[in-house]
Amino acid sequence: MAKSAHADTFAADRLPPREAWPDLIFTLPELQYPEYLNCAGDLLDRHVREGRGERRCLIAPDREWSYADLLAESNRIARVLVEDMGVVPGNRVLLRGANTPMLAACWFAVMKAGAIAVTTMPLYRATELRNIIEKAQIRHALCDARLWGDLKEAAGEASGFTTLCFGNGDLERRMQAKNPTFENVRTAAEDVAIIAFTSGTTGKPKAAMHFHRDILATCDSYARHVLRADPDDVFTGSPPIGFTFGLGGILLFPLHIGASTLLLEKAPPEPLLAAIEQYKVNVVFTAPIAYRAMCGMLDRYDISSLRICVSAGETLPQPVWQEWHDRTRIKILDGIGSTEMLHIFVGSPSESAKGGSTGRAVPGYVAEIHDDDGTALPPGTVGRLAVKGPTGCRYLDDERQASYVRNGWNYPGDAYRMDEDGFCYYVARTDDMIISAGYNISGPEVEEALLSHDGVRECAVVAKPDPVHHTNIVKAYVVLNDGSTGDSARSEALQAFVKSRIASFKVPREIEFVTQLPRTETGKVQRFRLREKAATE
Is 417 in the same domain as 471? Predict the structure, then answer.
């Protein structure tokens, strides 16, 4: 086994024991990796070394970088991390920013320095950032100056926390003094490269650890065999790089093949269509709700350059798939992935993609439908989706590892059925997560924010179906301390309060004031009754 390059062994010390890992399988020749590798070398340095340095790499409204430009900027930031901030291999570095070339350069710099990137959502507020900092014991950060306020508040009590901001000149001035070369740390293939955070049903953040090898494996499985993009393609999309769907689709996959990627700080449906037209985008990653919205705007934009569309984050309704296909003649590549698995593990290429199905297991992965005892079920039977492949769940010091991984299989928490040809069909989530507009939202986390208001006695948060947009919204049932039924003004005040504490996409779209919550005899809230109520409203 290769010796780790990590002088800081925090992550390695908190990996689950080997027997608690899922079975990792490397059935494809391209998934055979050396014992030592630094993913930055394959994704970035290799292109310059092999003579492709002048190829266009990163595109943004205010700049354009070649592969050589990105390499030089990443090398300078790596030197700042090591020489100025004292970062050593294995340290965790929090990255905070919108999708910009500087955020991408910071990510590669962390890889090069042998540190561990913890890339956060731009919408996260101080409460969420504080949980991440504490869980991963982070002491270093690179942050867009526009987002510094919440990070400053979150890190206020962390001893020895150091941050450099970009966009205000602080990081840029230090970079100017650095040599644009850097020798990548010789990390082991199984050294942790990223820690990706998600929220579980308890509201406590879960941290999934992925190796340098995993970063390349998702490129050599999904991107190579399902996406099948071309080096001359231009990629773009709406998910933030802090979301593993965005990290893969907007950064890893294009750079792996030497393509270019358009980084948009914000990409709601209409601006996304405008960007596709302006920059002649060929590959787009976004959520189902965006495809539905864009269908009604297609007549106003020329998207003839577009040829590959990927959807993930929540189920893609068959009518949305069909309408997009009818309007564009493009089959949306639906897929299911998870933070724990890093990216998409079930999804089919265009020639076999069909509306209503998530597709087959991605080459390199195996998928089955299991009953509660872990026994494979026959075709057509609804059960728990089980998967294994070259990536898998390894939580950071978390007892929930035992529920996600059982007998070598990963259980992402979805109910599925599979037909005789291996096509998978989504049925429902098997836990209490709310999936809304592509985001996984923890109901208990929203409840905690509501309960911190002194006017709220108790509350419960559930998903309410939104048939118009083919998604769910967050709905809260609230019991007020004064016993009143509330009104629209109270509802708006509570929404504003929650927005001040957690990300805006988690704020309840609807608040219903009730005098009591349905409970079991032991006092537990019967959320299933509230979900049934919400579904009929």
Answer: no
DSSP tally for the chain: helices H, then strands E = 18, 25
One domain, residues 241 and 390:
yes
pLDDT beyond 90 at 12: yes
Place of tokens 């999309």: 237
Residue 466, in any domain of the structure: yes
State the helix-helix crossing angle for 269-279 and 288-295, rounded to 10 degrees: 80
Distance in angstroms (rounded) separating the CA atoms of residues 291 and 276: 13
**pLDDT for the residue 157:** 67
Cβ–Cβ under 8 Å, residues 335 and 365: no
Alpha carbons 16 and 402: distance in angstroms, whole number: 9
Domain shared by 422 and 440, yes or no: no
pLDDT for the residue 454: 87
* Tens digit of each residue's pLDDT (9 = 90 or more) over 392-451: 999 999 999 999 999 999 999 888 999 999 999 987 666 667 888 888 787 878 887 898
Same domain flag for 422 and 450: no
Task: State mean pLDDT over 493-519.
Answer: 93
Distance separating alpha carbons of residues 457 and 51, to the nearest angstrom: 64
Task: Please give the distance of CA 370 from its chain centroid, rounded to a whole number.
Answer: 26
DSSP 389: B
Residue 113's Cβ-count burial label (10 Å; 0-12, 13-18, 19+) is buried
The whole-number pLDDT of residue 522 equals 43
Expressed as residue numbers, the domain containing 414 is: 228-428
For the stretch 117-148, pLDDT in tens is 999 999 899 989 999 999 999 999 999 999 99
Model confidence band, residue 158 (pLDDT cutoffs 50, 70, 90): low
| 92-105 residue pLDDT tens | 999 999 999 999 99
Cα–Cα dist 195/10, whole Å: 12
How far from the centroid of its chain's Cα atoms is residue 51's Cα? 32
Cβ-defined contacts of 488-496 (< 8 Å, 24+): 490/455, 494/450, 494/453, 494/455, 494/456
- Residue 520: pLDDT over 60: no
Q: Do 261 and 223 form a contact (C-beta atoms < 8 A)? A: no
| Contacts for 297 with CB less than 8 Å, ≥ 6 apart | 269, 270, 273
CATH code of the domain in which 468 resides: 3.30.300.30
In this structure, the answer to whether residues 307 and 441 fall within a common structural domain is no
Tell me which residue of 329, 386, 335, 392 sits closest to 358, measured CA to CA. Answer: 335
Q: What is the pLDDT of residue 202?
A: 38
* CB of 78 closer than 8 Å to CB of 113: yes
Sequence-distant (6+) residues with CB within 8 A of 163 are: 140, 141, 142, 143, 148, 151, 152, 155
- The count of domains in the chain is 2
CATH of the domain at 386: 3.40.50.12780
Number of C-beta neighbours around residue 409 at 10 A: 20
Same domain, 412 and 462: no
